[in-house]
Amino acid sequence: MIAGSAISLFSDFAGVESGLLPLAQVGKWLPVFVTPIWVLSMGLLLGALVTAVIHGILSALSFIPGLGNLADDPKRGVTLSLIAGAIFSALLCYFYVPQGGENGQLLFLPLVTLGMILGFGLIYGMWHRTRSEWMSILGEGVIPYILGTLGLFAVIGLGSTPFVEKPMAILESVPAVNLVGDGTVVEVATIAPSADPDIPEFLPAGITYNFRNVAELRIESDKKVFLADSDKAEAFSRAPIELNPGSTEAVTYKYQDREQPPIPGDPAKLHIYNQEIDPAEVTFTFKNLPQIPQASSIVFSAVALFLTLTGFMAMRQAAPRVWALALSTAKNEMAQPLYLLLLAIGIFAVLLFGIFPFNTLGDDIRLLKDSGVTMIMVLGMLLAVWSAGTSVSDEIDGRTALTVLSKPVSRRSFILGKYTGIMLAVLVLFVILAAVLLVVMSYKPIYDARETSQQQPPWQVGHEEIITTLPILGLYFMETMAIGGIAVALATRLPLLANFITCFAIYVVGNLLSPLVASARENTELVGFVGKLIAVVVPNLNSFNVQAAVDAGNAIPLIYLAAAFNYLVVFVIAIWMVAMLLFEDRDLA
């Protein structure tokens, strides 16, 4: 059955290239397949453009005397970066923490982290050395692999533009994406009464709006008024709408209901007649959202790419010794045959999952998502633990670490650089396999519909599957970072095999920790104490495990990502301190 599915899939694409398939059939499913990829590609292209423009401006500012030399003194550069980062962090917290509601406090640490990236990016982006080293930054270490993967993904998406469904409509929705707030805008029109009470006088409302992006509208008034689309009765395209005072008399409108809007699309045509003798205040509450909601992923993809490149640049310039050690470690691990083997296994497995008939009565997409992201995580963990053994344990036993530390590199920088380099290598693995998985996820709804003779889904279904997969990949990368931190800490004392066994045991117990602690509460005090002790010593990896949500088809809220990030930061700091305790008195001679 699998072979037949693979042959069917291959024949589809071969038929497209050779022209054997009818154009009507190709035109039916190809736009559904490529549109989600095209949307993300536009986000990557926009992110590259924004990065080029912003850092181009910073490079131009580096010619100004004083600004370009701020980071010449490392202490001064770091201090000013922390100050700028604190300002950015305060602004981000001011705008976004209230949107988190009762869990808004979970956003503080992620927003502070983003603020620090922006602060260091600002100061070191204006550094004259950064201006002259940008080509070196983009061409060294893991950055070319990441940019190459994203660039190939963007080229594929850009090349599919002729087949995309309504590309201009998607792009026109981008300006309506709300980076801050939920898009609610309040406009108040003050309407004077008619000069002659016997003659209705429709006065211009004097408010501005773009009805193309209005998703919801609520109109309230403190006086009895009439809404019309002209100032003259003979020019009315419809009868004026009566609006009485009081919240219960408010006029509401929702775009999704496909009703006729209560006000004209052109703000200049909106006129209001105040029937009473006192001025009336008419309140218009607009909720502006992009007409095509999927356009939001373009903006957020662009922001993610900008922050990633800015973070790489800032770390390279602010911590050159750690960055040099990290790049050396990452390049060494990526040159190993095991890395290529894991990459090949991951690509083959993801493609196989795409055509594998899970026979789940309509839930094949969820199983593909679960199997794909789990496979990527497992391969990433294997790479992290193996790299910790080869780049830390072997270097310590082979006296290579002593040579590195004889240079102006502290033991703290050595451990931090090794951990960073290992995770950079894992990040490249994640990015490449994730790109393949997202392409498969875009085609999977079409493939399943054709296999089951069901109606072909719209492209929004594939896009939703892709967007809901990205947070899961983020969580599993965080879990890999936690296991990687443990592996690096243990590698300062244990050989590779012992490290593998210990990390495997921690992974199993860590994912069973929540049910273990819950069951311990119902037993004796001794069992409860042992359960709590294990919870203190072993990380709760179940915090990153969202398999239940994936199986239920539920989307992962961003606030959950923030909570998992908070836990990861605290755990990584703790395990780094343990690693330093284990490595500080290690005899390297």
What features would you describe in this structure?
The structure is a single chain. The chain is α+β, with helices and mostly antiparallel strands. The chain is built from 19 helices and eight strands. The strands form two sheets. Strands 1-8-3-6 form a four-stranded antiparallel β-sheet, with no helix packed on it. A four-stranded antiparallel β-sheet has the order 2-7-4-5, with no helix packed on it. The chain is globular, with a radius of gyration of 29 Å. The termini are far apart. The model is unreliable at 1-24 (pLDDT under 50). Pfam families: ABC2_membrane_2 (PF12679). The chain crosses the membrane at residues 37-58, 78-97, 106-127, 142-164, 297-318, 338-359, 371-389, 422-446, 466-490, 496-514, 526-546, 558-583.
Main beta sheet, described? 4 strands, antiparallel
Q: Please provide the ordered H/E string of secondary-structure elements.
A: HHHHHHHEEEEEEEEHHHHHHHHHHHH
How big is the Rg? 29 Å
Number of strands: 8
Structural class: alpha+beta
Residue share in helices? 55-70%
Whole-number average pLDDT? Answer: 84
- Report the principal-axis shape: globular
Strand order of the largest sheet: 1-8-3-6
Strand percentage lies at 5-15%
So how many helices? Answer: 19
- How many discrete structural domains? 3
The N- and C-terminal alpha carbons lie at a distance of 60 Å
Unreliable sequence segments: 1-24
Sum this structure up briefly.
Pfam families: ABC2_membrane_2. This protein is α+β, with helices and mostly antiparallel strands and 589 residues long.
